[in-house]
């Protein structure tokens, strides 16, 4: 049976909660599955695999329940003879699988450890025993290993002083490093432990110290965030530009439609004025041009021709009476009026119809400009 002290991978944790009596209650990631790289004092490397069926075995999980918490790893295995000397809290009874990790509740009861926790001593490291099966192989994910850990049994969980992960005091563990191979923690000096992990840069895998990997990851996250923000700003500016162009195109189309409508309306109104002056030659074309509608012009001409329109009749009725009255009007009169309306103007008194026409064009252009 071998003794191991491992740092697990990163976990998603809630901030610690301070209880009324000053103790700290928190959730933590105790350990994980996967290949652990061990280095001894001679610099040798050994890769040991912790398969899920061993890590999450019922007896393995139960061994972490109520396991003592320590501040750093003690120089001896914990037992009933020495636990009071080292324990600063304990793991709770709720120990469960969380993805590829073991998660658990825990309570920290030591004031000095709590102060250090708030200052950044916020990493977890599990101390446990395991049977080592020296048969090498490859994990389902393709990682090579030299041996397999079986019958994992917890001895304690230590709060250790590893690289701080962020500004808030949190209990967590970072990926990569493991320490100790087949000897008690007291026999391993801190500088004998080299925590390493793999990072991928431009498609190439590198094995680097864990602290360096964390720095690389933070820089990559900042870079990705900056790229995402720049892309978002560019997309927003492009959308605003497209929106402005759409509004400008809509306004231009409205202006063109208005101008086309003016020409058609002016032509129709001039036709009605011409017919009205044919029906009642005494009418002033400029006066008719100032009227609001074709119906008003038609009613005015009918009244001048002594034709009464009953109140409340619809536009179609008025138009029919107007056209019927025109059938009795002299054709020559219509030709005369048209000739006067279409002849080139030589002075202000030459053609009242042309004057009315120009006034109406100007008025309608003003209305079109307001609508655009």
Question: What does this 3D model show about the protein?
Answer:
The chain has helices spanning 52-55, 58-64, 83-86, 111-119, 210-279, 285-289, 294-304, 315-327, 331-342, 352-371, and strands at residues 2-7, 17-18, 24-32, 34-39, 45-50, 68-71, 87-98, 101-108, 123-133, 137-138, 144-145, 147-160, 178-179, 196-201, 204-209. The protein is an alpha+beta fold. The protein folds into two domains: 2-194, no CATH class; 251-371, no CATH class. α7 packs across α8 (315-327). Mean pLDDT is 77; it is low at 9-13, 163-195, 332-341 and 343-351.
Sheet with most strands? 11 strands, mixed
* Assembly context of the chains: single chain
Number of continuous helical runs: 10
User: Hey, roughly how much beta strand do the residues contain?
Assistant: 25-35%
Question: How many domains make up the 3D coordinates?
Answer: 2
The whole-angstrom Rg is: 47 Å
Poorly predicted sequence stretches spanning 5 or more consecutive residues: 9-13, 163-195, 332-341, 343-351
User: What share of residues is helical?
Assistant: 40-55%
Distance between the termini: 88 Å
**Average of pLDDT:** 77
The rough form would be described as rod-shaped
SS content category = alpha+beta
Number of strands: 15
């Amino acid at each position: 049976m071998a003794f191991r002290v491992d740092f697990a991978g990163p976990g998603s944790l809630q901030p610690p909660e301070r209880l009324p009596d000053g103790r700290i209650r928190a959730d933590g990631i105790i350990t994980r599955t996967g290949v652990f790289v061990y280095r001894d004092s001679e610099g040798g490397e050994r890769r040991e695999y912790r398969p899920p069926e061993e890590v999450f075995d019922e007896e393995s999980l139960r061994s972490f329940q109520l396991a003592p918490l320590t501040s750093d790893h003690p120089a001896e295995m914990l037992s009933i003879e020495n636990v009071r000397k080292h324990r600063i809290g304990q793991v709770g009874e709720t120990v469960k699988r969380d993805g590829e990790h073991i998660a658990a509740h825990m309570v920290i009861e030591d004031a000095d450890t709590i102060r250090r926790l708030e200052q950044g001593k916020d990493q977890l490291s599990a101390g446990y025993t395991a049977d080592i099966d020296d048969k090498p192989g490859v994990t389902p994910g393709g990682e090579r290993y030299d041996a397999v850990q079986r019958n994992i049994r917890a001895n304690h969980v230590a709060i250790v002083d590893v690289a701080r992960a962020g500004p808030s005091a949190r209990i967590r563990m970072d990926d990569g490093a493991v320490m100790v191979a087949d000897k008690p923690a007291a026999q391993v000096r801190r500088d004998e432990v080299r925590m390493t992990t793999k990072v991928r840069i431009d498609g190439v895998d590198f094995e680097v110290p864990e602290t360096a990997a964390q720095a690389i990851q933070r820089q990559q996250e900042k870079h990705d965030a900056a790229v995402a923000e720049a892309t978002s700003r560019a997309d927003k500016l492009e959308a605003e530009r497209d929106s402005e162009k759409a509004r400008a195109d809509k306004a231009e189309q409205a202006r063109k439609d208005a101008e086309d409508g003016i020409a058609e309306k002016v032509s129709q109104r001039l036709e009605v004025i011409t017919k009205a002056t044919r029906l009642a030659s005494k009418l002033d074309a400029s006066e008719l041009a100032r009227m609001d509608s074709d119906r008003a012009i038609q009613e005015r001409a009918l009244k001048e021709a002594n034709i009464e329109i009953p109140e409340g009749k619809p536009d179609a009725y008025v138009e029919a009476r107007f056209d019927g009255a025109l059938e009795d009007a002299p054709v020559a009169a219509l030709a005369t009026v048209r000739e006067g309306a279409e002849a080139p103007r030589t002075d202000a008194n030459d053609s009242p119809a042309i004057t009315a026409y120009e006034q109406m064009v100007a008025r309608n252009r003003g209305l079109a400009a307001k609508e655009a």
